[in-house]
From TrEMBL:
<protein>
    <recommendedName>
        <fullName>Guanine deaminase</fullName>
        <ecNumber>3.5.4.3</ecNumber>
    </recommendedName>
</protein>
<keyword id="KW-0479">Metal-binding</keyword>
<keyword id="KW-0378">Hydrolase</keyword>
<dbReference type="InterPro" id="IPR032466">
    <property type="entry name" value="Metal_Hydrolase"/>
</dbReference>
<dbReference type="InterPro" id="IPR011059">
    <property type="entry name" value="Metal-dep_hydrolase_composite"/>
</dbReference>
<dbReference type="GO" id="GO:0008270">
    <property type="term" value="F:zinc ion binding"/>
</dbReference>
<dbReference type="GO" id="GO:0005829">
    <property type="term" value="C:cytosol"/>
</dbReference>
<dbReference type="InterPro" id="IPR014311">
    <property type="entry name" value="Guanine_deaminase"/>
</dbReference>
<dbReference type="InterPro" id="IPR006680">
    <property type="entry name" value="Amidohydro-rel"/>
</dbReference>
<feature type="domain" description="Amidohydrolase-related">
    <location>
        <begin position="76"/>
        <end position="437"/>
    </location>
</feature>
<comment type="pathway">
    <text>Purine metabolism; guanine degradation; xanthine from guanine: step 1/1.</text>
</comment>
<comment type="similarity">
    <text>Belongs to the metallo-dependent hydrolases superfamily. ATZ/TRZ family.</text>
</comment>
<keyword id="KW-0862">Zinc</keyword>
<comment type="function">
    <text>Catalyzes the hydrolytic deamination of guanine, producing xanthine and ammonia.</text>
</comment>
<dbReference type="InterPro" id="IPR051607">
    <property type="entry name" value="Metallo-dep_hydrolases"/>
</dbReference>
<dbReference type="GO" id="GO:0008892">
    <property type="term" value="F:guanine deaminase activity"/>
</dbReference>
<dbReference type="GO" id="GO:0006147">
    <property type="term" value="P:guanine catabolic process"/>
</dbReference>
Protein backbone atom coordinates (compact mmCIF):
# COMPACT_ATOMS: atom_id res chain seq x y z
CA UNK A 1 0.00 0.00 0.00
CA UNK A 2 1.44 3.36 -0.96
CA UNK A 3 1.69 5.66 2.01
CA UNK A 4 3.18 8.59 3.80
CA UNK A 5 6.74 7.72 4.68
CA UNK A 6 7.78 10.45 7.14
CA UNK A 7 6.96 9.18 10.62
CA UNK A 8 4.65 11.36 12.68
CA UNK A 9 3.14 11.33 16.11
CA UNK A 10 -0.59 11.85 16.37
CA UNK A 11 -1.44 13.06 19.85
CA UNK A 12 -4.81 13.07 21.57
CA UNK A 13 -7.17 11.11 23.78
CA UNK A 14 -6.96 7.61 22.35
CA UNK A 15 -9.68 4.97 22.62
CA UNK A 16 -9.33 1.51 21.09
CA UNK A 17 -11.02 -1.81 21.85
CA UNK A 18 -9.60 -5.24 22.61
CA UNK A 19 -12.89 -7.04 23.14
CA UNK A 20 -16.63 -6.58 23.07
CA UNK A 21 -17.35 -4.62 26.28
CA UNK A 22 -20.66 -6.45 26.64
CA UNK A 23 -18.86 -9.74 27.06
CA UNK A 24 -15.71 -8.86 29.00
CA UNK A 25 -15.75 -6.79 32.08
CA UNK A 26 -15.88 -3.40 30.37
CA UNK A 27 -12.64 -2.07 31.85
CA UNK A 28 -10.49 -4.78 30.30
CA UNK A 29 -12.24 -4.51 26.94
CA UNK A 30 -10.49 -1.31 25.83
CA UNK A 31 -7.43 0.89 26.17
CA UNK A 32 -7.88 4.58 26.87
CA UNK A 33 -4.93 6.98 26.94
CA UNK A 34 -5.94 10.41 28.27
CA UNK A 35 -2.76 11.91 26.78
CA UNK A 36 -1.92 9.32 24.18
CA UNK A 37 -0.03 9.10 20.92
CA UNK A 38 0.16 6.98 17.82
CA UNK A 39 3.42 6.77 15.90
CA UNK A 40 2.49 6.56 12.22
CA UNK A 41 5.04 5.32 9.70
CA UNK A 42 4.55 3.94 6.18
CA UNK A 43 0.79 4.10 6.52
CA UNK A 44 0.75 1.91 9.61
CA UNK A 45 0.69 2.27 13.35
CA UNK A 46 4.23 1.74 14.58
CA UNK A 47 3.62 2.50 18.25
CA UNK A 48 0.77 3.40 20.58
CA UNK A 49 0.57 4.40 24.23
CA UNK A 50 0.99 7.35 26.55
CA UNK A 51 2.36 10.35 24.68
CA UNK A 52 5.51 10.67 26.77
CA UNK A 53 6.40 6.99 26.33
CA UNK A 54 5.71 6.90 22.61
CA UNK A 55 7.64 10.13 22.05
CA UNK A 56 10.62 8.86 24.05
CA UNK A 57 10.71 5.57 22.18
CA UNK A 58 10.36 7.36 18.84
CA UNK A 59 13.29 9.66 19.46
CA UNK A 60 15.50 6.74 20.56
CA UNK A 61 14.49 4.49 17.68
CA UNK A 62 14.38 7.12 14.95
CA UNK A 63 17.26 9.20 16.26
CA UNK A 64 15.47 12.50 15.69
CA UNK A 65 12.55 14.61 16.82
CA UNK A 66 9.38 13.36 15.24
CA UNK A 67 6.77 15.88 14.12
CA UNK A 68 3.67 15.92 16.34
CA UNK A 69 0.11 16.59 15.20
CA UNK A 70 -1.71 17.58 18.36
CA UNK A 71 -5.44 16.79 18.35
CA UNK A 72 -6.04 17.31 22.07
CA UNK A 73 -8.64 17.48 23.55
CA UNK A 74 -10.29 15.45 20.79
CA UNK A 75 -10.82 11.69 20.86
CA UNK A 76 -8.78 9.50 18.53
CA UNK A 77 -10.32 6.18 17.48
CA UNK A 78 -10.00 3.64 14.72
CA UNK A 79 -11.82 4.82 11.57
CA UNK A 80 -15.45 3.71 11.44
CA UNK A 81 -16.52 0.77 9.30
CA UNK A 82 -19.85 0.64 7.45
CA UNK A 83 -20.72 -2.94 6.49
CA UNK A 84 -23.62 -2.36 4.09
CA UNK A 85 -24.57 0.50 1.80
CA UNK A 86 -25.25 1.27 -1.85
CA UNK A 87 -22.96 3.65 -3.69
CA UNK A 88 -25.38 4.24 -6.62
CA UNK A 89 -28.00 5.44 -4.13
CA UNK A 90 -25.97 8.47 -3.09
CA UNK A 91 -28.58 10.67 -4.79
CA UNK A 92 -31.54 8.44 -3.89
CA UNK A 93 -31.20 9.07 -0.16
CA UNK A 94 -34.21 10.88 1.32
CA UNK A 95 -36.77 9.65 -1.21
CA UNK A 96 -40.25 10.12 0.19
CA UNK A 97 -43.06 7.91 1.27
CA UNK A 98 -42.64 4.24 0.36
CA UNK A 99 -41.75 0.91 1.90
CA UNK A 100 -39.10 -1.36 0.43
CA UNK A 101 -40.53 -2.82 -2.79
CA UNK A 102 -42.30 0.36 -3.88
CA UNK A 103 -39.27 2.42 -2.91
CA UNK A 104 -36.98 0.21 -5.02
CA UNK A 105 -39.26 0.46 -8.05
CA UNK A 106 -40.11 4.14 -7.72
CA UNK A 107 -36.74 5.59 -6.84
CA UNK A 108 -33.83 3.17 -6.66
CA UNK A 109 -34.23 1.36 -9.95
CA UNK A 110 -34.63 4.72 -11.68
CA UNK A 111 -31.51 6.15 -10.06
CA UNK A 112 -29.36 3.08 -10.65
CA UNK A 113 -30.01 3.21 -14.41
CA UNK A 114 -27.91 6.37 -14.56
CA UNK A 115 -24.84 4.25 -13.80
CA UNK A 116 -24.82 2.95 -17.32
CA UNK A 117 -22.80 6.13 -17.91
CA UNK A 118 -19.17 5.70 -16.90
CA UNK A 119 -18.84 9.44 -16.40
CA UNK A 120 -21.73 9.45 -13.94
CA UNK A 121 -20.37 6.40 -12.11
CA UNK A 122 -16.94 8.01 -11.80
CA UNK A 123 -18.43 11.26 -10.54
CA UNK A 124 -20.66 9.63 -7.90
CA UNK A 125 -17.93 7.19 -6.82
CA UNK A 126 -15.66 10.10 -5.88
CA UNK A 127 -18.42 12.02 -4.13
CA UNK A 128 -19.52 8.88 -2.31
CA UNK A 129 -16.09 8.07 -0.91
CA UNK A 130 -15.51 11.68 0.07
CA UNK A 131 -18.80 11.62 1.96
CA UNK A 132 -17.73 8.48 3.82
CA UNK A 133 -14.48 10.20 4.77
CA UNK A 134 -16.31 13.35 5.84
CA UNK A 135 -18.25 11.16 8.28
CA UNK A 136 -15.25 9.34 9.66
CA UNK A 137 -15.90 6.10 7.79
CA UNK A 138 -12.64 4.70 6.48
CA UNK A 139 -13.87 1.31 5.25
CA UNK A 140 -17.20 0.30 3.76
CA UNK A 141 -18.88 -2.64 2.09
CA UNK A 142 -20.68 -1.21 -0.90
CA UNK A 143 -23.10 -2.51 -3.47
CA UNK A 144 -22.48 -1.08 -6.91
CA UNK A 145 -25.10 -1.06 -9.68
CA UNK A 146 -25.62 -3.93 -12.12
CA UNK A 147 -23.14 -2.31 -14.49
CA UNK A 148 -19.62 -3.70 -14.42
CA UNK A 149 -18.32 -0.18 -14.92
CA UNK A 150 -19.84 1.00 -11.66
CA UNK A 151 -17.63 -1.39 -9.67
CA UNK A 152 -14.60 -0.29 -11.63
CA UNK A 153 -15.42 3.33 -10.80
CA UNK A 154 -15.82 2.54 -7.12
CA UNK A 155 -12.59 0.56 -6.84
CA UNK A 156 -10.60 3.09 -8.87
CA UNK A 157 -11.81 5.91 -6.62
CA UNK A 158 -10.97 3.82 -3.52
CA UNK A 159 -7.49 3.13 -4.80
CA UNK A 160 -6.95 6.84 -5.46
CA UNK A 161 -7.71 7.48 -1.81
CA UNK A 162 -5.91 4.35 -0.62
CA UNK A 163 -9.12 3.36 1.11
CA UNK A 164 -9.86 -0.21 2.19
CA UNK A 165 -13.13 -0.91 0.41
CA UNK A 166 -15.20 -4.03 -0.15
CA UNK A 167 -17.72 -4.07 -2.98
CA UNK A 168 -19.19 -5.67 -6.02
CA UNK A 169 -21.58 -5.17 -8.89
CA UNK A 170 -25.08 -6.39 -8.08
CA UNK A 171 -26.39 -9.36 -9.97
CA UNK A 172 -30.09 -9.09 -10.82
CA UNK A 173 -31.82 -10.86 -13.68
CA UNK A 174 -35.52 -10.44 -12.97
CA UNK A 175 -38.14 -8.21 -11.31
CA UNK A 176 -36.28 -5.08 -12.34
CA UNK A 177 -36.38 -2.82 -15.39
CA UNK A 178 -34.82 -4.31 -18.51
CA UNK A 179 -31.97 -1.81 -18.37
CA UNK A 180 -30.95 -3.08 -14.93
CA UNK A 181 -31.01 -6.78 -15.69
CA UNK A 182 -28.03 -8.96 -16.35
CA UNK A 183 -28.26 -12.69 -17.12
CA UNK A 184 -26.96 -15.62 -15.11
CA UNK A 185 -24.05 -15.88 -17.56
CA UNK A 186 -23.23 -12.17 -17.93
CA UNK A 187 -23.56 -11.64 -14.18
CA UNK A 188 -21.11 -14.48 -13.65
CA UNK A 189 -18.71 -13.31 -16.35
CA UNK A 190 -18.71 -9.67 -15.24
CA UNK A 191 -18.29 -10.62 -11.57
CA UNK A 192 -15.44 -12.96 -12.41
CA UNK A 193 -13.68 -10.34 -14.54
CA UNK A 194 -14.08 -7.80 -11.73
CA UNK A 195 -12.71 -10.23 -9.16
CA UNK A 196 -9.68 -10.90 -11.32
CA UNK A 197 -9.09 -7.20 -11.89
CA UNK A 198 -9.95 -5.76 -8.50
CA UNK A 199 -9.87 -8.31 -5.67
CA UNK A 200 -6.44 -7.18 -4.45
CA UNK A 201 -6.16 -7.27 -0.67
CA UNK A 202 -2.59 -5.93 -0.85
CA UNK A 203 -4.04 -2.84 -2.54
CA UNK A 204 -6.91 -2.59 -0.08
CA UNK A 205 -9.62 -3.68 -2.56
CA UNK A 206 -11.83 -6.67 -1.75
CA UNK A 207 -14.56 -8.07 -3.93
CA UNK A 208 -18.03 -9.01 -2.70
CA UNK A 209 -20.11 -11.38 -4.82
CA UNK A 210 -23.45 -9.55 -4.78
CA UNK A 211 -26.70 -11.22 -5.79
CA UNK A 212 -28.99 -8.33 -4.81
CA UNK A 213 -31.67 -10.50 -3.14
CA UNK A 214 -33.76 -13.55 -3.93
CA UNK A 215 -36.51 -11.48 -5.58
CA UNK A 216 -34.21 -10.12 -8.29
CA UNK A 217 -32.29 -13.34 -8.97
CA UNK A 218 -33.57 -16.44 -10.76
CA UNK A 219 -32.55 -19.85 -9.44
CA UNK A 220 -30.09 -19.99 -12.35
CA UNK A 221 -28.45 -16.78 -11.15
CA UNK A 222 -28.18 -18.00 -7.56
CA UNK A 223 -26.61 -21.18 -8.98
CA UNK A 224 -24.03 -18.98 -10.73
CA UNK A 225 -23.49 -17.06 -7.50
CA UNK A 226 -22.77 -20.35 -5.78
CA UNK A 227 -20.25 -21.20 -8.50
CA UNK A 228 -18.51 -17.84 -7.96
CA UNK A 229 -18.38 -18.40 -4.19
CA UNK A 230 -16.81 -21.81 -4.71
CA UNK A 231 -14.33 -20.52 -7.26
CA UNK A 232 -13.38 -17.46 -5.22
CA UNK A 233 -13.71 -18.41 -1.55
CA UNK A 234 -11.59 -15.41 -0.50
CA UNK A 235 -14.26 -13.00 -1.73
CA UNK A 236 -17.10 -11.70 0.38
CA UNK A 237 -20.77 -12.39 -0.35
CA UNK A 238 -23.46 -9.78 0.23
CA UNK A 239 -27.20 -9.87 -0.14
CA UNK A 240 -30.42 -8.83 1.62
CA UNK A 241 -32.55 -10.99 3.90
CA UNK A 242 -35.92 -10.56 5.64
CA UNK A 243 -36.12 -6.79 5.62
CA UNK A 244 -39.84 -6.42 4.99
CA UNK A 245 -42.88 -8.71 5.21
CA UNK A 246 -44.00 -8.18 1.59
CA UNK A 247 -40.45 -8.94 0.48
CA UNK A 248 -40.42 -12.19 2.44
CA UNK A 249 -43.78 -13.29 1.00
CA UNK A 250 -42.65 -12.50 -2.55
CA UNK A 251 -39.22 -14.17 -2.14
CA UNK A 252 -40.63 -17.36 -0.69
CA UNK A 253 -43.33 -17.48 -3.41
CA UNK A 254 -40.54 -17.42 -6.01
CA UNK A 255 -38.71 -20.28 -4.27
CA UNK A 256 -41.53 -22.59 -3.15
CA UNK A 257 -39.13 -25.23 -1.85
CA UNK A 258 -37.95 -22.80 0.82
CA UNK A 259 -39.88 -22.90 4.08
CA UNK A 260 -38.13 -19.78 5.30
CA UNK A 261 -36.46 -17.01 3.31
CA UNK A 262 -33.01 -17.99 4.58
CA UNK A 263 -33.46 -21.49 3.14
CA UNK A 264 -33.09 -19.96 -0.33
CA UNK A 265 -29.58 -18.71 0.40
CA UNK A 266 -28.75 -21.87 2.35
CA UNK A 267 -29.74 -24.00 -0.63
CA UNK A 268 -27.30 -22.15 -2.89
CA UNK A 269 -24.56 -22.34 -0.23
CA UNK A 270 -24.40 -18.59 0.10
CA UNK A 271 -24.25 -18.61 3.90
CA UNK A 272 -20.59 -18.50 4.85
CA UNK A 273 -18.43 -16.66 7.39
CA UNK A 274 -17.72 -14.14 4.60
CA UNK A 275 -21.42 -13.47 3.96
CA UNK A 276 -23.06 -10.24 5.06
CA UNK A 277 -26.85 -10.30 5.07
CA UNK A 278 -28.50 -6.90 5.18
CA UNK A 279 -31.34 -6.37 7.70
CA UNK A 280 -32.43 -9.80 9.06
CA UNK A 281 -35.45 -8.31 10.81
CA UNK A 282 -38.33 -10.75 10.58
CA UNK A 283 -36.80 -14.10 11.39
CA UNK A 284 -37.59 -17.06 13.61
CA UNK A 285 -35.09 -18.63 15.99
CA UNK A 286 -34.40 -21.46 13.59
CA UNK A 287 -33.27 -19.00 10.93
CA UNK A 288 -31.10 -17.06 13.35
CA UNK A 289 -29.56 -20.30 14.61
CA UNK A 290 -28.78 -21.32 11.03
CA UNK A 291 -26.94 -18.04 10.58
CA UNK A 292 -25.00 -18.71 13.78
CA UNK A 293 -24.15 -22.20 12.60
CA UNK A 294 -22.87 -20.97 9.22
CA UNK A 295 -21.07 -17.94 10.68
CA UNK A 296 -22.88 -15.49 8.39
CA UNK A 297 -23.18 -11.89 9.57
CA UNK A 298 -26.40 -9.91 10.05
CA UNK A 299 -25.94 -6.24 9.11
CA UNK A 300 -28.11 -4.14 11.43
CA UNK A 301 -29.13 -1.02 9.48
CA UNK A 302 -31.02 1.17 11.97
CA UNK A 303 -31.72 4.36 10.00
CA UNK A 304 -32.85 2.35 7.00
CA UNK A 305 -35.10 0.07 9.02
CA UNK A 306 -36.85 3.10 10.48
CA UNK A 307 -36.89 5.18 7.30
CA UNK A 308 -38.43 2.40 5.17
CA UNK A 309 -40.72 1.33 8.00
CA UNK A 310 -39.19 -2.15 7.84
CA UNK A 311 -39.15 -3.13 11.49
CA UNK A 312 -36.95 -3.52 14.56
CA UNK A 313 -33.82 -5.67 14.43
CA UNK A 314 -33.70 -7.92 17.49
CA UNK A 315 -30.07 -7.44 18.49
CA UNK A 316 -30.17 -9.33 21.75
CA UNK A 317 -31.82 -12.39 20.24
CA UNK A 318 -29.10 -12.62 17.61
CA UNK A 319 -26.47 -12.24 20.34
CA UNK A 320 -28.16 -14.86 22.52
CA UNK A 321 -28.35 -17.37 19.68
CA UNK A 322 -24.71 -16.74 18.81
CA UNK A 323 -25.22 -15.09 15.41
CA UNK A 324 -22.68 -12.52 14.26
CA UNK A 325 -23.84 -8.90 14.04
CA UNK A 326 -22.45 -5.84 12.29
CA UNK A 327 -23.82 -2.31 11.93
CA UNK A 328 -24.33 -0.34 8.75
CA UNK A 329 -26.00 2.71 7.22
CA UNK A 330 -27.63 1.10 4.16
CA UNK A 331 -27.59 4.43 2.35
CA UNK A 332 -29.84 5.24 0.40
CA UNK A 333 -32.45 3.25 2.36
CA UNK A 334 -30.48 4.56 5.29
CA UNK A 335 -31.00 8.26 5.89
CA UNK A 336 -27.48 9.25 6.92
CA UNK A 337 -23.86 8.50 6.03
CA UNK A 338 -22.93 9.09 9.67
CA UNK A 339 -22.12 6.04 11.77
CA UNK A 340 -22.66 8.25 14.84
CA UNK A 341 -26.25 8.93 13.78
CA UNK A 342 -26.57 5.25 12.90
CA UNK A 343 -25.70 4.23 16.45
CA UNK A 344 -28.07 6.84 17.84
CA UNK A 345 -30.89 5.11 15.97
CA UNK A 346 -29.57 1.65 16.92
CA UNK A 347 -29.86 2.68 20.56
CA UNK A 348 -33.49 3.74 20.04
CA UNK A 349 -34.44 0.58 18.14
CA UNK A 350 -33.02 -1.46 21.01
CA UNK A 351 -34.76 0.77 23.57
CA UNK A 352 -38.10 0.10 21.86
CA UNK A 353 -37.52 -3.59 22.58
CA UNK A 354 -36.36 -3.06 26.16
CA UNK A 355 -32.71 -3.66 25.19
CA UNK A 356 -29.72 -1.55 26.13
CA UNK A 357 -26.73 -0.54 24.07
CA UNK A 358 -23.93 0.88 26.20
CA UNK A 359 -21.82 3.69 24.73
CA UNK A 360 -18.70 1.55 24.90
CA UNK A 361 -20.45 -1.26 23.08
CA UNK A 362 -21.60 1.16 20.36
CA UNK A 363 -18.07 2.28 19.57
CA UNK A 364 -16.81 -1.29 19.75
CA UNK A 365 -19.39 -2.18 17.08
CA UNK A 366 -18.35 0.73 14.85
CA UNK A 367 -14.70 -0.27 14.97
CA UNK A 368 -13.38 -3.65 16.13
CA UNK A 369 -16.81 -5.31 16.00
CA UNK A 370 -17.33 -4.44 12.34
CA UNK A 371 -13.69 -5.32 11.54
CA UNK A 372 -14.24 -8.76 13.08
CA UNK A 373 -17.46 -9.16 11.12
CA UNK A 374 -15.28 -8.76 8.02
CA UNK A 375 -12.43 -10.87 9.39
CA UNK A 376 -10.17 -7.83 8.95
CA UNK A 377 -9.34 -7.19 12.62
CA UNK A 378 -5.60 -7.60 12.03
CA UNK A 379 -5.64 -4.63 9.66
CA UNK A 380 -8.42 -2.28 10.70
CA UNK A 381 -10.82 -1.54 13.54
CA UNK A 382 -8.30 -1.14 16.34
CA UNK A 383 -5.21 0.94 17.00
CA UNK A 384 -2.60 -1.74 17.52
CA UNK A 385 1.00 -1.89 16.36
CA UNK A 386 1.03 -3.13 12.77
CA UNK A 387 -2.54 -2.02 12.01
CA UNK A 388 -3.26 0.20 9.02
CA UNK A 389 -3.36 3.82 10.17
CA UNK A 390 -7.07 4.45 9.47
CA UNK A 391 -8.10 6.88 12.17
CA UNK A 392 -10.95 9.20 13.09
CA UNK A 393 -10.59 12.25 15.33
CA UNK A 394 -13.81 13.29 17.10
CA UNK A 395 -14.82 16.58 18.68
CA UNK A 396 -17.67 16.19 21.16
CA UNK A 397 -18.11 19.99 21.39
CA UNK A 398 -18.56 20.63 17.68
CA UNK A 399 -22.09 22.04 18.05
CA UNK A 400 -23.21 24.64 20.57
CA UNK A 401 -25.79 22.32 22.13
CA UNK A 402 -23.16 19.60 22.45
CA UNK A 403 -20.71 22.05 23.99
CA UNK A 404 -23.26 22.95 26.63
CA UNK A 405 -24.08 19.32 27.32
CA UNK A 406 -20.38 18.42 27.50
CA UNK A 407 -19.91 21.01 30.27
CA UNK A 408 -21.71 18.63 32.62
CA UNK A 409 -20.39 15.35 31.21
CA UNK A 410 -18.50 13.43 33.86
CA UNK A 411 -17.09 10.38 32.15
CA UNK A 412 -15.72 9.03 28.89
CA UNK A 413 -18.96 7.07 28.50
CA UNK A 414 -20.96 10.31 28.79
CA UNK A 415 -18.82 11.90 26.09
CA UNK A 416 -19.23 8.91 23.77
CA UNK A 417 -22.98 8.89 24.27
CA UNK A 418 -23.26 12.63 23.61
CA UNK A 419 -21.23 12.23 20.42
CA UNK A 420 -23.50 9.43 19.23
CA UNK A 421 -26.78 11.01 20.26
CA UNK A 422 -26.12 14.59 19.17
CA UNK A 423 -23.24 14.24 16.74
CA UNK A 424 -22.81 14.03 12.98
CA UNK A 425 -20.12 14.84 10.42
CA UNK A 426 -19.47 18.18 12.12
CA UNK A 427 -17.91 16.23 15.00
CA UNK A 428 -15.39 14.54 12.74
CA UNK A 429 -12.44 16.82 13.06
CA UNK A 430 -9.93 14.78 11.04
CA UNK A 431 -9.71 11.44 9.27
CA UNK A 432 -6.50 9.62 8.40
CA UNK A 433 -6.43 6.92 5.77
CA UNK A 434 -3.27 4.80 5.72
CA UNK A 435 -1.65 7.58 7.71
CA UNK A 436 -2.66 10.43 5.42
CA UNK A 437 -4.88 13.29 6.63
CA UNK A 438 -7.90 13.17 4.34
CA UNK A 439 -10.78 15.16 5.77
CA UNK A 440 -8.88 18.41 6.05
CA UNK A 441 -7.84 17.96 2.41
CA UNK A 442 -11.41 17.59 1.08
N1 LIG B 1 -33.25 -5.10 -0.94
C1 LIG B 1 -32.85 -5.28 -2.22
N2 LIG B 1 -32.23 -4.20 -2.69
C2 LIG B 1 -32.23 -3.30 -1.70
C3 LIG B 1 -31.71 -1.98 -1.58
O1 LIG B 1 -31.14 -1.40 -2.51
N3 LIG B 1 -31.90 -1.37 -0.39
C4 LIG B 1 -32.52 -1.98 0.65
N4 LIG B 1 -32.66 -1.33 1.78
N5 LIG B 1 -33.02 -3.21 0.55
C5 LIG B 1 -32.87 -3.86 -0.60
FE1 LIG C 1 -29.20 -2.51 1.32
Amino acid sequence: MSAQTTPRLIRGRILTFLENPSQESAASAYHFYEDGALLIANGKIADVGDFSDVQARASVNLGAEVAVVDHRPHLIMPGFIDTHLHFPQTQAIASYGAQLLEWLNTYVFVEEQKFESAAHADFIAGRFLDELIRNGTTTAVAYCSVHKQSAQSMFAAARQRNMLMVGGKVMMDRNAPEALRDTPQSGYDDSKALIEAWHKPDQRNYYAISPRFAITSTPEQLEMSKALVQEFPDCYVQTHLSENRDEIAFATSLYPAAKYYIDIYAHYELLTPKTILGHCIHMCDREVSLMAERGAVAAFCPTSNLFLGSGLFDHDRFAKLGARISVATDVGGGSSFSMLETMSEAYKIMALQGQKLSPLQSYYMLTLGNARALGLQDKIGSLHVGADADIVVLDARAKPAMDLRMDVAATLEDELFILQTMGDDRCVSEVYIAGKAMKSAL
